[in-house]
Amino acid sequence: MSIELGHFAVVTALVLSFVGIITPIIGLKTRNATWVVVGRRAMISMFILLTVGMAILIYGYVTEDYSVKYIYATSNSKLPIFYKVAGLWGGHEGSLLLWAWILSLYSMLATLIHWKSQPVVMPYLILIESIVLCGFLLLILFLSNPFERIFPVPLDGKDLNPLLQDPAMVVHPPLLYLGYVGLSIPFSFAMAALFSGRLGEEWLKATQRWTVFAWTCLSCGILMGGYWAYYELGWGGYWGWDPVENAAFMPWLVVTAFLHSTMVQEKRKMFKVWNLFLIILAFSLSLIGTFLVRSGILSSVHSFAADPGRGVFILGFVCFMLLLSFGTLILRSAKLKSTVRMESMVSRESAFLFNNLFFLVALMTVFVGTLYPLLMEVLEMQKVSVGAPYYNAVFMPVALGLIFLMGVGPYIPWRKSNSKNNKKLLKLPLMVSLAAVAIFFVLGVQKPYALTGLAVVFFVLTAIFTDFNKVSAFWAKREKISRIQGFFSAYRGNPRRITGIIIHLGVLVMVVGIIFSSMYQAEKILIMKPGEEVTLKSFRFRMSKLYGVTGVNWGGQEALVDVYQEGKIIAQMHPQKRFYTVSQTPTTETAIHHLNMGHLFVTIPEVAPDGTWARVRILHNPLVLWVWYGGGIMAIGAFMNIFRRVRRRSSQVTDTAGMLPEVSPNIAQPTR
Amino acid sequence: MKEFRAWHLFLLMGLFGLFFLFYQGLWGDPTVLPPVIIEEPAPEILAPVLYEGEPIRLSDHLGKVVVLNFWASWCQECKLEHRFLLALKKRFEDNPNFVMYGVNYQDKDHLAKAYLEEHGNNFEHMIDMKGIISIDYGVYGVPETFVIDKKGIIRHKQIGPVMGDVYSELIEKVIEPLLNEPVT
Fold first, then answer.
1. Is the pLDDT of residue A443 over 60?
2. Can you name the residues that pair with A557 across neighbouring β-strands?
């Protein structure tokens, strides 16, 4: 019975989404705010109704109601309760409901938060969000209904895919959706700006934190997915350029570009059309990503059942949204001619321009690589797959260029830089990076790409700390306090800048992790019998035992692998080959030993039926933890950015504290 | 609308191109294989070899059974099957009518050589850096293995690693019968 209540709640939400579409339009036509108030109430009600729908479905999971087809397909009575709840987003239907719920949450919050401060935006925000929500609710109710019953009622569920029974996988989808869907808020503000013709900088300022929040969730979601692939899929690597990974990565690239280029518009009133284009592109890519993943047109590790009906609907919806948004942009962009021109190719504006250019090249690389197989197929040529060599060859130089810009962009003045200043900016970082290269070369890091990468990392690090030192000294002198206190004053003076730099530091840590764990990864795959040994680098692996094990809902085999270094035992590792009895799925459980922020990684992808031998895969991934440490630092920086205090309005304290001599008074003047 | 500029046109064309592509793509199934060129004459190959030596010409081997294995050093599955490939070559080593070549697909020479050094090698390899041979043969991923009969007709295509049962079936049901076929 209760399931029908949930179903009914979601149907009501769909009806209300039409209210959310119609009322703001009437409100705008009749210039009567009451209609918009109705829209706002519809928005809030939709959130409540979808929450009810979600709660009832979760209740169904907890009470093991297998008369519901979706619960039957993604749960089992033997599952721990944690995974029972997570079963909700363990398949196509439920994860779409989660998508819609998050969208309604965002819309409601945005309506409540900005109701007073952005009255002009509200009708458009309600309109756009309702359109998107309407599209998704139609898809959920008519083509992927999680509330559908089955008869006869099965005794037990088919079990959640064992690969998804993992903590990282439980948080990965909600985080990704928080990221994808979060982009709809700045997107709606941008559309509101286009429709209403209020194309100043207000929409950027109002949505900056929303964008950073969405960006953070997207980043964390992607990293979580990488972590999951790393040890649960037993890839031994965290990034495989899988089409679905790319689908999440593409909007990330664009949002990152957007977060940077908005600063140019805020400070210099340039890039106006460009910023609108970027945010529309970012949200479009998250919709396209949804389409690519859900329609099953690309083959990937993330397989949802292919269903052309669903595909056609999502495609129709994506077409509608893209044409609506890009069409409006085209029709309105004539109003947006920037009157400010780039003054010099050596200035912060141009650094941002290159930043955007590189991000777009990166985007095109991933985009082409992802869709090329599809294009070949449609043109009835051969099926092809684009492998890692393509991405690495094209992506690496672009990434290096972007990292290099992190050492220049934030420190070069706006408008125009002079050569004296340039020399000052470049000299110390260059010297340090050359010294670092020499040291690493002597230490045995001799691959050209690794050295180039490290050189760039040290260049940027030096640039960052030189600047930190400079601003700390400035504030220390100004407020007569110590350097360290001075740094905190600098932070309070311009938290947005400092938090941005913290994110940059996280990126550097991650890049070091990527360089070492990918270029200095060592691997061996071989057949081992108990008692046999193999050496990898300075480690000696001895498989001492191979025996059967059982868990709650699985049975399998486990190997005991002793690891020796310099004759001493340093670890005992227990990789497993599991077989989940209910869903009849085998999985490979990785054994990981932490070692100097790197990993020893052992899996047994294959065990002989009689248990006499196992295929063993052994990896050493040096510094691989830095990838996620870097991610953690980025997340800390991002959250500090989101929850920063609003800067006090003091005319003296400009955010260019890092480069005081160049502050020119006319920066803040309107130029339109 | 007098301000209609070039980028507007590009944007719209791009969008519609994309929609068309996606729409067409919906009716294909990425897991279904294209019509395989089995029972067709094997496309001619003239390719440089990985180690020193004369380029390989496939038509020089008419009258023999040829096994072509497409692989790459970046391919995980290839590592799994490599042991079996070595065994395969060893098994037919003494048969004058058996030829086996690796086709190194979109790889770098030094990586391919390092791979062979690590995993062992007992047969010759040709280089298909740009994937031209692979396109001729309709290879959509690595590893793939082709068996060509004495008349130069492709008789078998194996997608994915040759190991376990696949390995024994390949020998018993494909290669051995073909070796026993008379040359006409």
1. yes
2. A548, A577
Kindly state the helix (H) or strand (E) to which residue A578 belongs, with its residue range. Answer: strand A576-580
Distance of CA A121 to the CA centre of its chain: 27
Strands (DSSP E) contained in A252-348 are none
Quote the pLDDT of residue A179: 93
A581 C-beta neighbours (distance < 10 Å), count:
17
Strand pairing category for B98-105 and B65-71: parallel
As a whole number of angstroms, the distance between CA A464 and CA A479 comes to 22
CB B150 within 8 A of CB B97: yes
Q: Is A312 on the interface with B (CB under 8 A)?
A: yes
Residue B130 sits at the chain A interface (C-beta within 8 Å) = no
- Three-state DSSP class for residue A635: helix
Integer Cα distance of A317 and A384 in angstroms? 28
pLDDT at A660 over 50: no
Per-residue pLDDT for A287 more than 70? yes
Contact between residue A510 and residue A635 where contact means Cβ atoms under 8 Å apart: no
What amino acid is encoded at A11 in this protein? V
User: Which of the 8 DSSP states describes residue B43?
Assistant: P
What ipTM did this prediction achieve? 0.71
Chain B residues whose beta carbon lies within 8 Å of the beta carbon of residue A311: 26
* A360 and chain B in contact, CB less than 8 A: no
Residue A126 amino acid letter: I
In tens, the pLDDT along A396-437 reads: 889 999 999 988 888 887 877 777 777 888 888 899 999 999
- The reported pLDDT for the residue numbered A252 is 95
To the nearest 10 degrees (0 to 180), the angle between helices A308-332 and A122-138 is 160
Architecture of the structural domain at B38-180:
3-Layer(aba) Sandwich (3.40)
Alpha carbons B137 and B44: distance in angstroms, whole number: 10
Contact of A355 with A403, CB cutoff 8 Å? no
**Residue A591, φ and ψ in degrees, nearest 5:** -105, 130
Residues of A in contact with B144 (CB under 8 A): none
d(CA A387, CA A42): 47
A80-to-A85, A87, A172, A590 alpha-carbon distances in Å = 9, 11, 18, 21
Report the range out of A69-83, A208-222, A545-559, B112-126 with the highest average pLDDT: A208-222
Is A83 a domain residue? no
Residue A671: the pLDDT is: 35
Q: What distance in Å separates the CA atoms of residue B46 and residue B52, rounded to the nearest whole number?
A: 15
Residue A346 resides in a domain: no
Distances (CA, A) of A459 to A191, A274, A293, A428, A575: 40, 30, 39, 8, 41
Token output for A47: 């959130």
CB A313 within 8 A of CB A139: yes
Neighboring chain B residues of A377 at a CB cutoff of 8 Å: 25, 28, 30
The reply to whether A556 falls in a domain is yes
pLDDT score for A388: 73
Report helix angle A202-231 to A184-196, nearest 10. Answer: 150
Q: Given 3-state DSSP classes, what are the helix, strand and coil percentages for chain B, each rounded to the nearest 5?
A: 40, 20, 40
Q: Do B74 and A387 touch (CB under 8 A)?
A: yes
Of B12, B75, B140, Cβ closest to residue A383: B140
Q: Is residue A602 part of a domain?
A: yes
Domain count, chain A: 1
Question: What does the alpha-carbon distance between residue A656 and residue A636 come to, in Å, rounded to a whole number?
Answer: 23
Q: What is the pLDDT of residue A520?
A: 87
* Interatomic CA distance for residues A362 and A257, integer angstroms: 11
- Structural domain spans, chain B: 38-180
Residues in chain A: 672
- State whether residue B8 sits within 8 Å of chain A by CB: yes
State pTM to two decimals.
0.78
Question: Chain-centre distance of CA A201, in angstroms?
Answer: 26
| pLDDT given at position A5 | 92
How far apart CA B160 and CA A230 sit, in angstroms, is 22
Cβ–Cβ below 8 Å for A382 and B139: yes
